[in-house]
Design goal:
The protein is an alpha/beta fold. It has 12 helices and 8 strands. The protein has an 8-stranded mixed β-sheet. β7, α10 and β8 form a beta-alpha-beta unit. The longest helix has 14 residues. The radius of gyration is 17 Å and the shape is globular. The two termini are about 20 Å apart.
């Protein structure tokens, strides 16, 4: 069994790519794409499950976060190139992807750009393209305004991420968590989950706010590809009590992805859907 939090490789353009490996080193490769802002360390929460299910679980820092170099040419689509290079370096021909929240766009970019490598994708509480009119249905007005400002005003995303960086302290996080739906609050009553949130978020801001800010702007702008052109099997999991990513986003994936299926969790929210149903989410659904 494998657990290594601090691995690095040099990409062909000279940038460093930081990643972590968990689970069974001889198992089926699964890339875990964390939400935004986040880091490779979140996947450690699923190390034991990956061991049991015989997965080689790989989690990668996206540009400007954790151990990965900032990329001035970063786009959602060219993230697939970074993953392809890492997979080649590790002699991985095909793999599955599990993505949470803002990681959904990067997972779907891989399914679009390197479909021969991606066997299946599982999206949990995934943020859909916010430029689609139906993405606003059910979304809190504050989030709609914030997404618009990040999309259209240079520097606003950096300001928001700088503020979030300041709030990554146990005391302030505990106060903020009280505003989450009850299922998510219960998740963070577990000290291990709470400490993991601190660790993975702190690591995301290791190089400052520029990497997270760049990613947030990319996620709320057009992604550069159409969901309708993705043929890879996609499983979508969504909590109906999610206050951060509304149900309409899961319905966008269901309606626009040609090979998608949707599973609702009636009593789950943004993070509880992932943690309370990890065994089902990690269960393989398509042939390898």
């Amino acid at each position: 069994m494998m657990r290594n939090d601090h691995l690095m490789m040099q990409l062909s353009d000279g940038r460093q790519l930081g990643y972590a490996e968990y689970g069974d080193s001889a198992g089926h490769p699964v890339f875990y794409f964390q939400g935004s802002p986040g880091s490779r360390l979140q996947a450690a929460d699923f190390h034991a499950l990956a061991c049991v299910q015989h997965y080689r679980l790989l989690s990668v820092d996206r540009p400007g976060m954790g151990l990965s170099s900032f990329n001035t040419r970063h786009t959602i689509l060219n993230w697939a190139n970074d993953i392809s290079e890492l997979a080649d370096a590790l002699d991985i021909k095909q793999f599955s992807i599990i993505a949470h929240s803002g990681g959904a766009s990067f997972a779907l970019a891989c399914a679009y750009a390197i479909p021969d490598c991606v066997i299946e994708v599982a999206i949990v509480s995934g943020l859909a393209p916010t430029n689609l009119p139906e993405s606003k249905r059910g979304m809190a007005r504050g989030f709609i305004i914030m997404n618009s400002l990040m999309r259209n005003i240079p520097g606003f995303a950096w300001l928001m991420m700088k503020l979030q960086q300041v709030f990554v302290t146990p005391e302030l996080l505990k106060k903020n968590l009280k505003h989450l739906p009850e299922p998510d609050q219960i998740i963070f009553e577990d000290p291990a989950c709470f400490n993991s949130l601190i660790a993975t978020t702190t690591e995301a801001f290791k190089q400052g706010a520029s990497g997270p800010a760049q990613e947030m702007r990319l996620v709320v702008k057009p992604w550069g590809f159409n969901l309708e052109n993705i043929d890879v099997p996609i499983s979508v999991f969504q909590g109906k009590l999610d206050s951060q990513v509304p149900v309409s986003h899961a319905e966008i994936f269901r309606d626009r992805l040609p090979n998608a299926r949707l599973r609702f969790f009636e009593e789950e929210a943004h993070l509880s859907a992932l943690y309370n149903h990890a065994e089902e989410i990690f269960e393989p659904r398509h042939s390898r």
